[in-house]
Q: What sequence folds into this?
């Protein structure tokens, strides 16, 4: 009996070592210790006769969710960790120590974590930490793909900053060290070289940036260690209650293609199952992560008739919430508040805007802007006004406890 117990313990050593090394690398890169992920419940895969080794460990993507009591929408973050934290604090979702205090709230971050800043990986780890903490309190954090996530998985680094390259070089050093540590254990499969197939030089790129490019490609290409871990479970389109979330804009052809199908195709592509290039729904000026048909700052340039058609084809949908296009005036709505634009350019790599987030009260269908900018306190009516409503309620941090809302 003792021999069997000892044998079982020894057989667990390789997996324990692998887990230790992974946590060591995570902490070295991000400075965070991640709680163990919650158990995955995936009835679709459980009923499958022989799910693939990759999909066996992935939770089912949920494209449609019921309306929660409290729903928070956060716009583009673009590599600015401190502004990201400010946005979460603004909605009383984390405390001063960055711990989740949002209870059962649901949070949707509409994409564009990557590019324009130097703390992209730290934000990905930060969001992952909060996902695990929130799940233990009955809360939910949903992250989405923006055009910059799609670009980076495709190897398009036009908007990468030097600090962004440096951050990925640091990741690559620690990740490769972790692989060397794992290779010392006989019970573990030899880790795959993350740089396999990546060139050592890049035409048109300064030599000083070669290592950063190699690290970024290794991390973010389809089935890369970072893309498969952090981006593969992002949604590309989401319906929560009566709100549609998308980074750019959902158009009729996307609805016809199928919302669930879009999410599955993008997930499979990021996981390396469908070639180098992103699905067609994500490409071109009318791609759902690129479209600006409903986000032009001039209301007269927004295609309200197309928006109305899209909303009418999705049962119960009242509004579309999107990022992608910076709104100098802050969060606002057009087309009788049927299009709500939440990218306030908060990153220092954009316009260094003051954070704002959108709050939706599921019980009353009330919409509120939570803002850190006191200059907008008396500018409610111009932010989100309709013929029936005086405007979207507008709250500063010190006013958050007050119950002020407007039906929308």
A:
């Amino acid at each position: 009996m003792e021999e069997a117990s000892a044998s079982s313990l020894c057989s667990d050593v390789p997996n324990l070592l692998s887990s230790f090394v992974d946590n060591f690398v995570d902490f070295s890169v991000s400075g965070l210790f991640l709680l163990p992920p919650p158990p995955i419940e995936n009835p679709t895969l459980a009923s499958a006769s022989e799910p693939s080794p990759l999909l066996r460990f992935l939770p089912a993507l949920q494209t449609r969710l019921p309306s929660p009591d409290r729903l928070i929408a956060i716009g583009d973050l673009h590599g600015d960790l401190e502004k990201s934290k400010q946005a979460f604090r603004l909605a009383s979702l984390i405390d001063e120590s960055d711990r989740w205090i949002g209870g059962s709230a649901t949070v949707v971050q509409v994409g564009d974590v990557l590019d324009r800043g130097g703390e992209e990986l730290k934000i990905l780890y930060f969001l992952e930490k909060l996902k695990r903490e929130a799940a233990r309190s009955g809360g939910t954090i949903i992250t989405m793909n923006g055009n910059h996530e799609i670009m980076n998985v495709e190897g398009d680094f036009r908007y990468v900053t030097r600090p962004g390259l440096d951050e990925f070089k640091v990741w690559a050093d620690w990740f490769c060290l972790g692989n060397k540590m794992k290779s010392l254990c006989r019970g573990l499969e030899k880790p795959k070289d993350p740089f396999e197939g990546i060139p050592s030089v890049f035409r048109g790129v300064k030599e000083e940036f070669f290592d950063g490019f190699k690290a970024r490609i290794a991390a973010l290409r389809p089935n890369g260690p970072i893309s498969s871990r952090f981006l593969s479970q992002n949604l590309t389109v989401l319906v929560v209650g009566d709100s549609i979330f998308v980074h750019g804009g959902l158009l009729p052809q996307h609805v016809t293609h199928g919302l669930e199908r879009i999410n599955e195709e993008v997930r499979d592509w990021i996981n390396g199952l469908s070639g180098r290039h992103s699905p067609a729904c994500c490409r071109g000026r009318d791609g759902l992560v690129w479209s600006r048909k409903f986000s032009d700052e001039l209301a007269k340039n927004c295609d309200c008739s197309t928006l109305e058609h899209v909303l009418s084809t999705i049962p119960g949908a009242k509004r579309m919430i999107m990022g992608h296009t910076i709104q100098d005036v802050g969060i606002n709505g057009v087309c009788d508040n049927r299009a709500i634009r939440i990218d306030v350019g908060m990153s220092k790599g954009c316009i260094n805007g003051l954070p704002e987030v959108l709050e939706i009260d599921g019980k009353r269908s009330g919409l509120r802007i939570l803002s850190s900018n006191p200059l907008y306190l008396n500018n409610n009516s111009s932010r989100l006004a309709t013929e029936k409503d005086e405007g979207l309620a507008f709250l500063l941090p010190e006013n958050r406890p007050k119950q002020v809302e407007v039906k929308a």
In short: The domain at 63-159+222-407 is CATH 3.60.21.10 (Purple Acid Phosphatase; chain A, domain 2). The chain has a mean pLDDT of 86. Residues 83 and 347 are 6 Å apart (CA to CA).
